[in-house]
Amino acid sequence: MPTHRLPILQPAGRGLPLEASARPVDRRWRPSYVVWELTLACDLACHHCGSRAGRARPDELTTAECLDLVDQMAALGVNEVTLIGGEAYLRDDWTAIIRRIKSHGMRCGMATGARGLTQERLVAAKDAGLEAISVSIDGLEEEHDALRGVRGSFRAAVDAMDRIRALGGIRLSANTQISRQSLPVLEGVFEVIADHGATAWQVQLTAAMGRAADAGPGGELTFLEPYEVLYAHPKLARLKREADRRGVTLWPGNNVGHFGPFEGVLRGDLKAGYRGACGAGRLSLGIEANGNVKGCPSLPSKPYVGGNVRDQKLVDIWERAAPLRFTRDLTARDLRGFCKDCYYAEECRGGCHWTSHVLLGYPGDNPYCHHRALELMAQGIRERVRLVEAAPNEPFDHARYVLEREAWPEEERAAVERIHLETEALVWKASA
């Protein structure tokens, strides 16, 4: 299977300055949800890995530091922690960390490729208090193994799902990156995760971060061209109908949707019926294995790490680190490009900033918006990306692209419009 260069591991962001004091808005927001990279060590070599996981960072937190960080999370008001990696189970102390999270009454789950999620590890995690596991399924066997870089990784993931379901007591879900490789077989992926007992399915567009900014398994792009969201969203809307029928909650990730015609179908269970502005630094928090703190786990490290827990208390980083304040202060006037003048600008505020920043080098101009792609198609225009600067091969790095516009081929445009009309008729008839 394909191999990758190991990333250049940078030291933690130490000694970063904090603002002199916290403002009322900084104290009003509290992170209810934390995603914590326990280690960068991994037993897979995924082409779409944003953190370029493989080997542990040289300066990862010790067990004592991790346990103290859990105590600080609880004091800050965190309700739920998801452990990621790399692979969290490659730390010998991972169950001790789960147990400490549970002791504070916080919910604890994990996301995993599951290649090494043995029965012994599962039982230990359950006994420690792990409540949920999300297994990554990124295609059928051929696509999944090619993307994950290890033959047999699909079978290992599916077998792990069966073991989780048989063990009981741990909520089983699945997650899928929507890429150029997985999109054509997305219906088959759903059948796999439903047949093997997943109660929920998170879908997320692959973003141009880390290895996803490099060439894919066959030398092609891993992430979609911006206009190709017009193929993804009707498919997701149809799958949502099937998921409801089979008792599987289809959960669109943060960079899926944005006020297209299927938003109410995909997110109708939310109070507002749609997803609002990004919650990074307002409702969510990301922690890297070396103690770096940022508002969202997916954001690139250099521009968004606000501090390190070896230098400052978590509450001080949350309240006084300028990079964690950016969504608290962001207004529609700060947006760029199409997003700046969009009808939904005030409510959406540029959608997923991770997706736009790792593509263009700045937030607030998201070409992977369903509404945007439809508006441009109505003008006969679609957007593509062109690489102008390669990624430097560091964890959470990104290349730099520019957007280019071209005319829609008439036959293809007509086919996409027909798919949307047919899907709208189907899903709204079902919900009537």
Would you summarize the structure shown here?
This protein is an alpha/beta fold and 432 residues long. The protein has 17 helices and 12 strands. The strands form 2 sheets. A 10-stranded mixed sheet has the order 7-6-5-4-3-2-1-8-9-10.
Characteristic key phrases:
432 residues, alpha/beta, 10-stranded mixed beta sheet, two-stranded antiparallel sheet, 36% helix
Q: Your description of this structure?
A:
α2 links the parallel β1 (33-37) and β2 (80-84). The model has no long low-confidence stretch (mean pLDDT 93). Strands 7-6-5-4-3-2-1-8-9-10 form a ten-stranded mixed sheet. Strands 11-12 form a two-stranded antiparallel ribbon. α3 packs parallel to α4 (119-128) and α7 (186-195) packs parallel to α8. The protein is of the alpha/beta class and 432 residues long. The longest helix is centred in the last third of the chain and has 22 residues, at 410-431. The protein has 17 helices and twelve strands. It has helices spanning 24-28, 63-76, 94-103, 119-128, 141-148, 153-167, 186-195, 229-246, 263-266, 301-304, 314-320, 326-329, 337-340, 345-348, 353-360, 370-378, 410-431, and strands spanning 33-37, 80-84, 107-112, 132-136, 171-178, 200-205, 249-252, 284-287, 292-294, 307-308, 381-389, 400-407.
